[in-house]
Amino acid sequence: MSGDVEVATINTYEPPKALATSPMDYSKFQQRFKSFLVKDWTKMPLELSPIACAMKGWTLLSGESIRCDFCNRTINIVLPKKNYELYKSHTKVLEDKLMSEHRIGCVWKCELNFPDYFITMEFEEEGKLEEKLLCNSRDISQHLDAFNYVQTFLKVECLTENRADLQAYAEAGDVDVIPLTVAAHGWKVRSLMQNRLLHCEICCRKVPLWNKAHNVLDLRKHFAWCPWIYAHSSSTTPVVNRIYTFISQQLRIKRKRKSKDYETSSQRKEELKEIVKYMRRSLT
After folding, report:
1. Which ranges in the chain are annotated with CATH 1.10.1170?
2. What is the chain written as a DSSP string?
3. Which residues lie closer than 8 Å to 167 by C-beta, 6 or more apart?
4. Residues near 275 by beta carbon (within 8 Å), at least 6 away in sequence
5. pLDDT on residue 117
6. 29-58 pLDDT tens trace
7. The domain at 17-114 falls in which architecture?
């Protein structure tokens, strides 16, 4: 019929209800992130790192192929290795595709603001921070002899500039400063046959401790995208910096509580009231 108008339809995607999970599901984020913790992907540039891909809804299928866990769209991630300029331009194109390749109607089609702990993944509960830090330091203390050859530890700037605070915190926590320094940079010690190595549980970087020809140990040697040394958003800071902030706060509190004025201060009285309230709630 000559007067008919052809109406264009938009090809939107309606996922099965079983797939329509909240993008703010932390366990699902962890599943996506951990799928990328394979040798070749941990070395990807920041723009295509495991965290960058997981935050935009992608899961690693195999090799170079990733898939959206909501709309099932797939992308092949291939980067040229010999031409640096081509490498950078391809990285930018693929970074844009992490957003644009989702189907219309997909929940990952727009930018999402994740809670900070999605990105840092470590120490999301401040109350457990000291316990985890000191516990890891004591575990590393059992391998203290593995660091005998080290004359220089290369540390992040905030811990290099405030060595006295680190020493004071180690003494207060009854641990050696070397294990505390290693733990504060996000490392654990693992045994491999007769040898030992540093291991990061987030980026899976491994640093051998058996190469004693060098007397320098770089504690900043995480993969570039690792939250321990890299801030993925304007609202987060690298976890190492967060650790130092916590250490300095705890030292100030301990010094204040040792002062004579504190014992009779109104703040001390208010703290005691809060402790009593907490104890009463716990007993009821």
Report:
1. 17-114
2. -TT--PPP--------GGG---TT-HHHHHHHHHHT-SHHHHTS-GGGSHHHHHHTTEEEEETTEEEETTT--EEE----SS-HHHHHHHHHHHHHHHHHTSPTT-GGGS-----HHHHH-S--SGGGHHHHHHHHHHHHHTTGGGGTT-SEEE--HHHHHTHHHHHHHHHHTTS-HHHHHHHHTT-EEEEETTEEEEE-TTT--EEES--TT--EEETT-S-TT-TTT---STT---HHHHHHHHHHHHHHHHHHHHSHHHHTSHHHHHHHHHHHHHHHHHH-
3. 177
4. none
5. 78
6. 989 999 998 877 888 899 999 999 999 999
7. Orthogonal Bundle (1.10)
Q: Are 227 and 239 in contact (CB under 8 A)?
A: yes
Q: Greatest CA separation found in the chain?
A: 95
Q: pLDDT value at position 122?
A: 56
Q: pTM for this structure?
A: 0.78
What pLDDT, on the 0 to 100 scale, is given for residue 188? Answer: 95
Average pLDDT, the chain: 81
pLDDT for residue 283: 53
pLDDT confidence bin for 130, thresholds 50/70/90: confident
Across 1-10, 109-118, 151-160, 188-197, least confident range: 1-10
Q: Tell me which residue has tokens 């959206």.
A: 68
Question: In the predicted model, what is the mean pLDDT of residues 112-137?
Answer: 76
Residues forming beta bridges with residue 191, ordered by sequence position: 196
